[in-house]
Specification:
This protein is 40% helix and 19% strand. It has 14 helices and 16 strands.
Length: 404
């Protein structure tokens, strides 16, 4: 393991859309192109070592990248954070306890908002096993080509002391292409079973029917990554396509008293204090889009009251619990009241998000569709779910839904 060093193949497995519109991976050549761009920006040195400039940019949330990699921006930042390392020590003196405003909790407007969004659901997943296998076969068959295995020898001087591990590269060889007969093949069925949770029989069938086992011999690791990504992508789509939500009883919901019972703390640097419309006296945000959204709500005359939803407020999905960002009460120009659950993202396009993120958002939409249908049937406030960047977009989108 090489600490604090970004290899030129670090971004190879990132999801990307191929020229023919199919889902694929970034690949080695584009990963190397991105590595070169990071070097030119001064974020890594010639040996791939992370610089302080990159650590500073990651802390501020502003890492400029070439336009060609805009769709993978968030994925790239996640990888860079892992390689940048260095535990960030937070100042305990900046830690604050966030408290709920009893007056807002008791306000009739907030109670109507909470009544619209608080109910719980359960789900079942139904999908066609044969169809899933067929789609996995097609996804692997049309996945990007696999390059031949190459080896590079690097020498370095390593020093270990109380300050950590420091490595300085002293030389490297030219890439050497390995012959297939020299490559020791791993147990692909065991590895893929662990990474996909499918049975060995199913995995064997997918691999054989794809007609790409020769690629496994050419470059085992790259092929395993390619196969795991293709299978998991199709599996996630099948789970989301087959998920069906059902509202639980009238007694199954998140009580607003939890705002008083569950202690919430945060750090000053990630906190908007003295929020006037929030159910909490301060808003803890996780990203710049969240901070901007909270600021826009505070300034908007259309927003009457809102809540940053704490971690205990979740929607169940086949991919794990999902915690939306906001519950917002909006009044339109026509006087209509809109009860919204919002997910703040850096983009309004779901195609630019991770597969898991995108899938959880799709599940949340179905959860709130079920709650909305029930509320409409009994003439109660109808919750609306929205994901994107801008408060104005959320209001316009929710108003259109209300008009329809």
């Amino acid at each position: 393991m090489r600490f604090g060093i970004v290899p030129d193949h670090a971004f190879t497995g990132l999801s990307a859309v191929a020229a023919d519109g199919r889902d694929g991976i970034l690949g080695y050549e584009r990963s190397k192109e991105l590595w070169t761009a990071l070097h030119q920006l001064g974020y890594i040195d010639g040996a791939g070592r992370v610089t302080d400039a990159l650590r500073s940019a990651l802390r501020s949330g502003a890492v400029p990248l070439p336009d060609a990699f805009r769709a993978q921006h968030e994925q790239i930042e996640d990888i860079l954070r892992k390689h940048a390392g260095r535990l960030e020590i937070r100042n305990a003196d900046e830690r604050r306890t966030v408290r709920a405003r009893q007056a807002v909790l008791d306000d009739a407007e907030f109670q109507r908002l909470w009544d619209a969004v608080k109910y719980k659901t359960t789900y079942r997943v139904q999908f066609d096993n044969e169809k899933l296998i067929s789609e996995c076969v097609d996804a692997l068959r049309t996945a990007p080509p696999v390059s031949r295995t190459r080896l590079v020898w690097r020498t370095a001087q390593i020093r270990i002391d109380v300050g950590g591990v420091d490595a300085r590269e002293t030389g490297s060889s030219a890439p050497v292409v390995m012959e297939e007969k020299d490559i020791e093949l791993p147990d692909i069925l065991t590895v893929l079973q662990d990474r996909t949770q499918l049975t060995r029989r199913t995995i064997c069938r997918i691999l054989i029917d794809s007609g790409r086992l020769d690629d496994f011999k050419r470059n085992p690791q790259q092929f395993i990554d390619l196969a795991a990504n293709a299978i998991n992508h199709r599996k996630r789509l099948a789970l989301v396509d087959g998920v069906r939500y059902q509202r639980l009883g009238d007694t199954e919901y998140y009580a607003q008293e939890l705002f008083l019972q569950q202690e919430l703390t945060g750090y000053v640097r990630n906190m908007m204090e003295n929020a006037t419309k929030s159910v909490l006296d301060s808003v803890i945000y996780d990203s710049e889009p969240e901070r901007s959204f909270a600021d826009a709500m505070e300034k908007s005359s259309a927003v009457k009251v809102y809540a940053k939803l704490p971690g205990w407020f979740t929607v169940p999905t086949p991919l794990g619990a999902y915690n939306p960002d906001w519950a917002v009460l909006v009044t339109t120009d026509d006087g209509d009241k809109l009860y919204c659950v919002a997910e703040t993202k850096h983009t309004a396009s779901l195609d630019k998000l991770f597969d898991t993120e995108r899938s959880k958002i799709e599940c949340a939409k179905r959860h709130y569709d079920v709650l909305r249908a029930h509320a409409k049937a009994v003439s109660e406030p109808e919750p609306r779910y929205w994901s994107g960047e801008s408060l104005d977009e959320m209001i316009a989108s929710s108003a259109r839904e209300s008009g329809e």
